[in-house]
Design goal:
- The structure is a single chain.
- By secondary structure, the chain is of the alpha/beta class.
- It has two domains: about 150 residues, SPOUT methyltransferase, trefoil knot domain (Alpha/beta knot); about 50 residues, Orthogonal Bundle (Trp Operon Repressor, Chain A), CATH 1.10.1270.20.
- It contains seven helices and nine strands.
- The strands form three sheets. The chain has a five-stranded parallel β-sheet with strand order 2-1-6-5-7. A two-stranded antiparallel sheet has the order 3-4. It has a two-stranded antiparallel ribbon with strand order 8-9.
- A hairpin with a 7-residue loop joins strand 3 and strand 4.
C-alpha cells in the first residue's frame, strides 16, 4: 500500500510514522508513506501557497495551483483509489471507513491549513473528505496521522496476531470487553472466574455479553 500525504508541515508527521507498528509496517514493506511538502510547489520564490479570500474575511486560503500541481505530479506515477481531504465537515472517521481504506493500494491524504483549501480543488480532485471529530485543529496533519494509523494496523501481517485487529472496539459495532492479565488478584480485585476456567465457549459468551453491556452503557447510540 502507498499513502502519499500533501502537507505544509512535513516535520509534524516525522515522529508518528517512525515508531511502533507503522515503522514496522514500513520496514516489512507492507506500506510506503511519502510526505510531500506543498511548498515545493509554491507559486513564487517566497514559498507562497496561500492567499486572501475573495469576498473578504479573516484567514488565508490554500491556493489552487500548488495543490493541483502536487496532485497532478503524483497522478503521473500511479492511479489513486481515493484522494482524501482532512476536513472538519467531512465524513466522521469510523472503523468501517478504516477497514475499507486498508484494502486500497494507493491513496492521497491532503492536509488542510488556514481557512481550508480553494473549493475548486475539492470539486476537481478530492474524492472523499474525512473528519476525525467535531472540533477544529490547527492543520490536517494530526488527522492524517490518525487516519493513517487506523488504516495501516489493519493491513494483513502488520500486527503480530491478526485476530487482535478483528476483536478491536467497533469492528462488530460493539465496544471491546474488559481485558485482564496477571496477577489474578490485585488490591482485592479478582479476575472473573470464567476467564480462568479454560472453557473457551463460556469465555466467548462472557466476552460477548460484556461487550454488549458496555456498549449499551457507554455508547447507546451504537
Amino acid at each position: 500500500m502507498k499513502i502519499d500525504i500533501i502537507t505544509l508541515q512535513p516535520a509534524l508527521l516525522e515522529s508518528p510514522f517512525n515508531h511502533s507498528m507503522i515503522q514496522r509496517a514500513k520496514d516489512k514493506g507492507f506500506v510506503t508513506i511519502n510526505i510531500i511538502n506543498l511548498r515545493d510547489y509554491a507559486i513564487n520564490a517566497h514559498g507562497q501557497v496561500d492567499d486572501y479570500q475573495y469576498g473578504g474575511g479573516a484567514g488565508m486560503v490554500m491556493m489552487c495551483e500548488p495543490l493541483a500541481n502536487a496532485i497532478e505530479d503524483l497522478k503521473k506515477e500511479r492511479n489513486y483509489d481515493e484522494i482524501i481531504y482532512t476536513s472538519p465537515d467531512g465524513e466522521l472517521l469510523n472503523q468501517s471507513i478504516s477497514n475499507t481504506l486498508s484494502l486500497y493500494e494507493n491513496i492521497i491524504l491532503l492536509c488542510g491549513h488556514y481557512k481550508g483549501i480553494d473549493e475548486r480543488i475539492r470539486q476537481l480532485y478530492v474524492t472523499k473528505e474525512i473528519s476525525i471529530g467535531n472540533y477544529v485543529l490547527t492543520g490536517g496533519e494530526l488527522a492524517a496521522a490518525v487516519i493513517t494509523d487506523s488504516i495501516v494496523r489493519l493491513i494483513p501481517g502488520v500486527l503480530g496476531n491478526e485476530e487482535s485487529a478483528l476483536t478491536d472496539s467497533f469492528q462488530d459495532d460493539l465496544l471491546a470487553p474488559p481485558v485482564y492479565t496477571r496477577p489474578a488478584e490485585f488490591k482485592g480485585l479478582k479476575v472473573p472466574d470464567v476467564l480462568l476456567s479454560g472453557n473457551f465457549k463460556l469465555i466467548e459468551e462472557w466476552r460477548m455479553n460484556q461487550a454488549e453491556e458496555k456498549t449499551k452503557e457507554r455508547r447507546p447510540e451504537m
